[in-house]
Specification:
The chain is globular and about 75 Å long. With 475 residues, it is of the alpha/beta class. Helix 1 packs across helix 14 and helix 2 packs parallel to helix 13. It has 14 helices and 8 strands.
Amino acid sequence: MKQQGYLSGRIRFNLIFNLIIMVLLVIPFLSNKLTISLQLFLSVWFVIFTILYLISTNKLMNLHNKFSTEGKQYQLHFKFIMTTFIYKEPYDLVSETLKNLSFEERSPNLKETQLLIQQRFSSNFQELLFTVHPFNVEGEIPGKCSNCNYVQRFAVEHIRQNDPYNEDNYYVTNFDIDTRFQQNYIEVFDKKILSAKASERHLIVYQPILFYNWGLDKSCIFVRITSLVRNMLMMGALIPFNINVMSIFGFSMKLMIDGNYTNPAYQMEDIICFIRWTLVSKQLIRIEPLYTATLSGPTSGKNYFEEISEWARQLRRWTIGTAEVFHYFVIKSRKMKFSFKLVGWVLIYVLYYCIIMKGQNILMLSSLIASNIIQQDDDEYIYYLKFIPLGIQYISFAIIFITNNRSLYMIKDIGGTEQIGIIRNLVHFILTPIIIFFYGLVSFYALMEVAIRGKQVCKHGASKKDDLQGKIVVI
């Protein structure tokens, strides 16, 4: 049998990302004015993201406050399946799961964990199902995508045996084991489905608003800043511009079946599901926000250096994953009819993941090097324009810090509490652009790595969750 490589006889379209980065790397050595123009252009996008973030946060707060004062009994119109995945996570985290649990065959303490969960939760839900995903299945890579594919097929088979005439009435939530939902999550999900046209319900993926304030006051500055910015970008960019869902998301069982489940040969289950289901449906799947604050655990470590290492490892995986699925999309989308919506999605995907998240940091680094090597005769105003992008960033970061702090009351009951002193908060704020700069450097390294090594680096390394309950007070 012919072994399928990363190329498979085709161009590696993820190299478009590398080409764009290389162009941005060269521009500061050619034109100072063009460099400033690009930086201002990217700053405008950051302003747009920040404004949309404020609008979304305000709406989330209003709906949260409204739910808190209603206190009415709600009758569900649909049936819901909650699926999560366990590998090495400790029982304290596992106990947060709700309904369907899927284990890898390699999971340590498998039987003990199943027994503990069965004893504690069997009376809480209509059904509590366990599956064990076999290890080393041909055509799969170990990780969340293959786990998702396995448990989704198991769930469908179970429903068809026990409730065969109501497939279209089931909705699934895919979430990580380090997730804490609000009590109103299912209700908000149910109402959101009802608000959509019946003909469109199976062409939508639903994204709850994710917060990462799980012990962030005890995390290192790299993890905390990245977590705050991720929360902003979800509400200000990923959802409004329909780019992709992230880690915890809901969808109809019909969409899952029609979309041929999750591709088990990839690592980023959220993006690959969104793209795969778009391709199979032959139209762009819509992302709808679920305005319920959901707590998701950030990366963690036992000490400062381990936490930074874990942060960099996960960032590398995210970057490789976004490049990998872009190649997948370009190859598969050739079977779809031309659509301006699809072209628009490709452009915003490249703009967001390649230029904004990675390229602007490389542009900044290259600009600093060029300004010290090449003497360019520019007008005096060019010198002052250089400071505008940085000033815009600081204004946006200030809004992020303040808004996130104002939002903490919504996740207080599910563990989202923080106690950070004014001095430490100020130090974090001042250093935020530097942290984002290092974020870009790690992403740049990951892009170069996947360009050179190809498919062999596209693997899923599970995040460490053991130390989410631990305490590591650092700068």
